[in-house]
Design brief:
alpha/beta; Rossmann fold; six-stranded parallel beta sheet; Glycosyltransferase family 1 protein
Length: about 350
């Protein structure tokens, strides 16, 4: 069985999509029951060329059985096709997307869903969303959880403390959050919450890893907020280990991979009380309403003054144990084999 995995986004700092493809490819590569090829193409080629020419040409050249893409599949169907749909945020929050992105998702995604032989989603929540937005997905959709990269693990305090000082000059205690160009990460709410908390804990900083959202007014950022921009997975693992609390309050999410990364790194985690975060993080995550600054401050204050109990550590390890890229690969291969029967 030969499978082409569309990896055009690998190495482009695209975040979750790139991580998904890269880690799935690694997990599939050493298997004996599948021959997987990662399509990266020419970084200068456009999406239109990739979908119309690049992927179909490769499929013919290597006699591929399946092309597995993220969201959008090739226009010319020369093989069986599988697509992974991580979430439906473009339908729930269209204002968070450019006009070009809205046009692509409103036209090409329905076409890809209709023509796909199988569809993978990361949570039961996204599967439920699919029934509302695209009922045609119902009979060919399977839930396969994502997983966290092994680079995210617990690190000794001596090692991460020295590294964070040398790399980022982080000497003070800090809360950590992640940002992206999409405003759904709710960064402004987190800044407001930490601002209020600093009335009691003024020696804490807020560290933001990632690029700021479109339209974010950087000039309004207070001096106790450190914006690091894009960081490598290695650096992010160090940041997870060193933070007092990791705060992840998206307004919408399909899986919530950063929650799993932080738990795997041993961090205390505050997450949005929304279905996918509850599904993935369970009792290992302290949930708050992403629209309630007051609740965030209250929970932050509690976690700042307490250490993880043995029970909390047990819950964290239990959640982490549920997910692995090997399990993801196993379930993905089952879908490949099913559509080839």
């Amino acid at each position: 069985m030969k499978v082409i995995l569309d990896g055009h986004m690998v190495g482009t700092k695209e975040g979750g999509n790139a991580r998904y493809v890269q880690n799935l490819y690694k997990a599939l590569f050493d298997r004996r029951d599948i021959d997987v090829v990662l399509y990266t193409g020419d970084k200068n080629e456009g999406n239109l060329y990739r979908l119309c020419v690049g992927l179909p040409n490769m499929a013919r050249k290597i006699h591929a059985d399946i092309i597995h893409s993220t969201y959008i599949s090739p226009f010319l169907k020369t093989t069986k096709t599988v697509i992974t749909v991580h979430d439906f945020s473009f339908y729930r929050y269209p204002k968070f997307f450019t006009l070009r992105e809205q046009i692509i998702f409103s036209t090409l995604l329905p076409w890809s869903i209709n023509n796909a032989d199988a569809i993978i989603v990361p949570t039961e929540f996204v599967k439920e969303e699919s029934l509302e937005f695209s009922p045609k997905m119902a009979n060919k959709t399977g839930v396969i959880h994502d997983a966290s990269d092994p680079v995210f693990t617990t690190i000794s305090k001596k090692k991460y403390s020295q590294y964070l000082i040398e790399k980022f000059y982080l000497k003070k205690k800090y809360y950590l959050c992640l940002s992206s160009v999409n405003p759904k990460k709710n960064i402004e709410a987190i800044i407001q919450g930490v601002r209020l908390l600093r009335e009691h804990y003024s020696d804490f900083e807020l560290v933001i890893a990632g690029v700021l959202p479109h339209g974010f007014d950087k000039s309004s950022v207070p001096p106790w907020v450190r914006i690091l921009g894009f960081v490598s997975d290695h650096d992010l693992a160090m940041l997870y280990n060193g933070c007092e609390v990791f705060i992840y309050l998206p307004l919408y999410e399909g899986f919530g991979l950063p929650v799993l990364e932080a738990l795997q790194s041993g961090a205390k985690v505050i997450g949005s009380r929304i279905p996918p975060i509850c599904e993935v993080g369970g009792n290992a995550v302290t949930m708050v309403d992403p629209n309630s600054i007051g609740e965030l401050v209250q929970v932050l204050k509690k976690l700042t003054t307490s250490s993880q109990t043995p029970k909390q550590q047990m819950l964290r390890r239990a959640v982490v144990k549920k997910y692995s890229w090997q399990k993801t690969a196993d379930e993905t291969v089952k879908i490949y084999k099913k559509i080839l029967q």
